[in-house]
Amino acid sequence: MEPPDDKTVRFQINGRSHEGTRGESLLAAIRRHGYEVPSLCYHEAVSPYGACRLCLVEVKRGRRQKLTTSCNYPLQEGIEVFLDTDRVVRHRRTILQLLLAMAPEAEELRSLAAEYGVEDTPFVTDEEHADNACILCGLCNRVCNEVVGAHAIAFAGRGLHKRMESPYDDVAEACIGCGACVFVCPTSCIGIEETEQMRRILKWHRDLPMQKCAACGRPFAPTFQIMHFADKIGVERSHFDRCPDCR
Amino acid sequence: MAKRLQSTKELLSLQEKIGASRDPEQKVVSVCAGTGCCAYGAKKLAEAFASSIEGHGLEGEVALRLTGCHGFCERGPLVVIHPEGTFYQRVQLDDVDEIIEKSVQAGEVIERLLYADAGGKTYEHEKDVPFYKNQQRILLANNGLIDPTRIEDYLAIGGYRALAKVLDEMEPEEVCAAVKASGLRGRGGGGFPAGVKWESCRAAHSPDGVRYVICNADEGDPGAFMDRSLMEGNPHLVIEGMIIGAYAIGMPGKPKGYVYIRNEYPLAVERLGIALEQAREMGLLGEKILGSELDFDIRINKGGGAFVCGESTALMASIEGEVGEPRAKHIHTVESGLHDLPTNLNNVETWANVPLIIDRGVDWFTSIGTGDVSDNPWGGSKGTKIFALVGKVNNTGLVEVPMGATLRHIIYEIGGGIIGGKKFKAVQTGGPSGGCIPEEKLDLEVDFDRLTEVGSMMGSGGMIVMDESTCMVDIAGYFLHFLADESCGKCVTCREGLKQLCIIIDRIREGKGREGDLTLLQDLGETIAEASLCALGQTAPNPLRSTLKYFREEYEEHIRNKKCRAGVCKALIRYSIDAEKCTGCLICARKCPQECISGEKKKPHVIDQDKCIKCGVCMDVCKYDAVCVE
User: Fold this and answer.
1) Per the CB < 8 Å rule, is A157 touching B489?
2) Directed axis angle between helix B492-509 and helix B517-531, to 10°?
3) Is the Cβ of B487 closer than 8 Å to some Cβ of chain A?
4) Which end of chain A has less neighbouring CB within 10 Å, N or C?
5) A98 and B493 in contact by Cβ < 8 A?
6) % of chain B beyond a pLDDT of 90
7) Measured between CB atoms, which of B306, B330, B520 is closest to A122?
8) Helix or strand or coil: residue B81?
9) pLDDT in tens, B387-406
10) Are residues A160 and B489, on separate chains, in Cβ contact within 8 Å?
């Protein structure tokens, strides 16, 4: 066995020894080793945010054992991680109940809650927002900023008035219609519609004409998106005249 | 005065010169110009004194000094006549000429303007007034003596002497060690040992030697105003503390300073700005401070009014121009804070203690307070703490006491007891996320650890006294609503959890509480406390949890008996008129906004319960105690 380099750390999950990279997301390391921990606001492609609080674990470091979210916990040498302790499960159930009160119709949320035996919530549902399944996880915003680089949407308001929206809740002019936000949204609350001519991202009020493939004539992506990526990687826009199949 | 000082020697000789030029027998009319007294009209009062001094031909003979907050805000506007130290309270414009003629010129005392205690006994000197006599004022000591807009005043009382000592005699490591040995703990609420933080920040790796030194002046707790008063009354004390900190933490290297202050504190911003400019002119800030290798300046960053920006990571995000949201602190800000560089953040009051510790020594500081910090900086609470004493207490204001003073001492000896001789019910310490402490704990010796033990906290030092007319369910609801409004909304437990706590407690207040609500409150409170991202969420359930612990029977009465014993929760009370006591004077009937009180003159009146909105006006205006609430 090779000696571990200084980036490799050893740690334990539920008493079993594992290795990982110093500073990486504890949640990523836990999942890589085949354990399951729920989360709604985490995606390995973007920076952790720590908003949904579902990825709680208990971490023992030295003599101190504490409850922490694992997504934003940087992996360190010698820590002992305990998943699904009574304390973790108790709080996780309460958090799921809070989320259910927020977005009672969200299918993904309901099935996750059901896994923890949470079928209903003792908390009051906000009727005004019953049709809005957004749980303010911020994934759409982080994907848009960090992966796509379009910076089309952001959080507005604070606290109880916090919401994710396009600037002034009007047309998101910077949105390229790539749909990455729709893909990562854990409650499918953004909405995308597509016709031969047009792709619409409903929540951001964005309608974008589609580019047709110069060879097969099939619409394959919004023209604005193609322009954005051509500029970003520094190629002629004509590079994207054809669809991926015909290229 | 604008000459830049080139060495500590020049500073000390300037101090000597200023000291020698001051006549201890100089007649001075000192007017408190803190925010509280200004609200009472202190500025107009000061103008009146200026023209009266001129009118009596006393210019040059009698000086007028506008000082910072004296602390006894209940009795403002406050005026002190030096050198005698005659203390006048609730001074009005009409009193000005009399004070100049009788008190200043003739040396008489105007009995009418002296403070009189509940028994009618009057006190001539500030130091004898029980409110002051029972305090130990070291941080606030000079607030009433100096004009905060004149650096000479600060120099005259030995200001910047500690900085000179540090630059002349101490290595940066020795300064950190002294602060650690003093046992000074963070006055902003956390109670973390300042010296330990300084050493960690000093030891943290910084690629180009930049380390940030920040003063957290985002004082946001309702009712707390000690930081404001320090900045308004003695800004150089805070600045000197920060310069010493910059030397200790950042040298050799490039320390940079920030004061993050609420924009709602215009007077403090102004005075701090003036003080910084004076310090720059004299070479106490900027390059090569007093001829040493230390280059350091301080920038003021005005906050936009979000309570959560008092949290260190949110504060740093805000300085960076980002949304003021906290982040997880698995990597401490001393290692990676502002702009991802080592950052040491302390509260205003913490910084203000530093020059005193250096000047008077560690032994002096550790002689004040509780516990033993000789080999463990968490071993006690040293020094004094300023509390903002407010609520149903006779003497409200700023109170500075040694750590370990009892609640009873603060509330009864200094605060003069409960207004109207009513019964004490609870005291809420630590701001909105503190806890309510009941009567049986009045002999608690107030320090960081004792307050935590009883389910409250030191916080920034708010102290709200409540009497029997306060409903504990209602008060818990008040703080929960405050915190729900001030939550940044980032994490689910804080944002949604506090919202649900408010919904449940509101329904209890409205008499619609259900069996099981208390368990629900308890469980949800525990999840918010344990699973939230930052200290705002983690401490937010404190008012709820402490009132559930000490005043559970009030919650149960609200739910089961639909009764509010304090007569506060409108849905659970009804006003009625005692026919025996009612004289039929008609006042209540005339004042009732609903016009729902009827009755003939000189005959008992009756309230129409269907129309009554329970505003309580009838009770307030009745001179015969005939209106009762149940």
Assistant:
1) yes
2) 160
3) yes
4) N
5) yes
6) 83
7) B520
8) strand
9) 999 999 999 999 999 999 99
10) yes
**pLDDT averaged over consecutive 10-residue blocks of chain B (630 residues)?**
84 92 90 91 94 92 92 91 92 94 91 90 91 93 91 94 96 97 92 96 94 95 90 96 97 96 93 96 96 96 91 95 90 94 97 97 96 92 95 93 96 93 92 91 94 89 93 96 94 96 96 94 97 94 94 96 91 90 91 90 89 90 89
Task: Please report how many Cα atoms fall inside a 13 Å half-sphere around the Cα of residue B245, on the Cβ side.
Answer: 36
Domain span at A162: 139-240
Same domain, B492 and B603: no
Residue B530: list chain A partners with CB under 8 A.
67, 87, 91
d(CA B294, CA B283): 11
B372 and B388: one domain? no
Taking a contact as any Cβ pair under 8 Å apart, which residues of chain B between 309 and 328 contact chain A?
323, 327-328
Interface check B523 vs A, CB under 8 A: yes
- Specify whether B66 is located in the same domain as B40: yes
Q: Is residue A183 exposed (0-12), middle (13-18) or buried (19+ Cβ within 10 Å)?
A: middle
Q: Which domain covers residue B92, as residue numbers? A: 8-129
The single-letter code of the amino acid at B447 is D
Classify residue A247: in a domain, yes or no.
no
Residue B503 touches chain A, beta carbons under 8 Å = yes
Give tens-digit pLDDT for A119-173: 999 999 977 676 689 999 999 999 999 999 999 999 999 999 999 999 999 999 9
**Number of domains composing chain A:** 3
Which DSSP symbol is given to B616? -
Same-domain status, A59 and A33: yes
**What is the three-state SS of B130-177?**
HHHHCCCCCCCCCCCCCCCCCHHHHHHCCCCHHHHHHHHHCCHHHHHH
Interchain contact A39–B (C-beta under 8 A): no
Residues 81-100 of A with CB under 8 A from B: 87, 90-91, 94-95, 98-99
Please check whether residue B31 is in contact with residue B49, taking contact to mean a CB–CB distance below 8 angstroms.
yes
**Interface pTM (ipTM) of the complex?**
0.93
- Nearest chain B Cα distance for residue A71, angstroms: 10
The answer to the question of residue B272 being in a domain is: yes
Hey, are the CB atoms on A51 and B527 less than 8 Å from each other? no
If asked whether residues B194 and B109 sit together in one domain, one would say no
Most B CBs within 10 A among A94, A120, A132, A187, hence the mutation to make, goes to A94
CB B196 within 8 A of CB B377: yes
Contact call for B492 and A99, based on CB within 8 A: yes
